Amino acid sequence: MCGCYQETENQEVHQPSLSRRDLLRGLAGGTAIALAPGCSTVATAFTPSQAQMAQAAGPAWAELKQKQRASTDPRYTSRVNRVALKVLRAAGENPAAWEVVTFDDKSLNAFALPGNKIGIYTGILDVMENDDQIAVVMGHEVAHVKLNHSGQRYGQSAATQFGLSAAGAILDSRSPQNSQAIQQALGVGAQVGFLLPFSRSHESEADRVGLRYMPSAGYDPREAVRFWTKMAQAKSQAGAAPPEFLSTHPADSTRIASLKAEIKAMGYEI
Fold it and tell me: Could you give the dihedral angle defined by the CA atoms of residues 155, 110, 264 and 213, in that order, rounded to the nearest 10 degrees?
């Protein structure tokens, strides 16, 4: 699914300096971008490689770890580390090449950054009934990284904001415009304790690919339906969720229906 873009050769994205204000202001990480006809092909032609995006994400990851406290509670960390090991191996990855951090935060959230970085919050772990449900989220985040969704978002943002003729040129990191495009691609955060999701299409793709890792890791993909049903209930208790067309996350009903269809295609009965 990730072979539809062309990596840019011999171009390097240097690390932008992300201040706390940059992290906490509106970085349009999950904004759906409408391209003119033909723009999507040009945008993917300027999609940076995973290595380039990893370099760009380094400062954001370092600052997140500095500003948010990592949990040392084994009730959380042992579960996360155990599941991450199995899911990463099922995804064909070397777990030693990944960094997975459990953050002590009650938000119902998890996120991925380029460079094999995954963060998961204790708040969402409290909702999870078993390791299978942790694997649902872990597989989803691993898929975001492996599919280079941040790089794809960068290509779209570059072509859309600066015009097709300038899309390649802004890969020069000395341009402040390029730094802005990188920040938008990372979607590091708009407010304390909240990280922006990817676009609806990227979220749905990560759902599907993440499910495929679960059987090989020894987990039941049907738990995805149970988990997202619980998340819908948790959100309804916290307040009404925005309509799907106002949100970059798929509506809960849409997500659950898509998960059920994918699980059936994998040979499971729902």
Answer: 80
Calpha distance 59→131 (Å, rounded)? 31
Encoded tokens for 100: 């997975």
Low-confidence ranges of the chain (pLDDT < 70): 1-46, 157-197, 238-249
CB atoms under 10 Å from CB of 38, counted, come to: 10
CB-count burial class (<10 Å; 0-12, 13-18, 19+) for 246:
exposed
Q: CA 267, CA 255: separation in Å to the nearest integer? A: 19
Annotation says 205 is catalytic: no
Length of the chain: 270
> What is the torsion angle, in degrees rounded to the nearest 10, for the CA atoms of residue 60, residue 162, residue 32 and residue 2?
-70
Could you identify the residue written with the tokens 């729902």? 270
> What pTM was estimated for this model as a whole?
0.75
Structure tokens at 177: 């415009």
Q: Which of 63, 141, 203, 205 is catalytic?
A: 141
Distance CA 59, CA 61 (A): 5
Say if residues 107 and 121 touch (Cβ distance below 8 Å).
yes
Q: pLDDT value at position 244?
A: 53
DSSP structure class, residue 167: T
Which residues sit opposite 142 in a β-bridge?
none
On whether the CB atoms of residues 21 and 145 are closer than 8 A, the answer is no
In whole angstroms, what is the distance from residue 147 CA to residue 206 CA? 8
Q: Which amino acid is at 261?
A: A
Quick check: 219 and 86 in contact, CB under 8 A? yes
Instruction: Please state at what angle helix 252-265 crosses helix 200-217, rounded to 10 degrees.
Output: 40
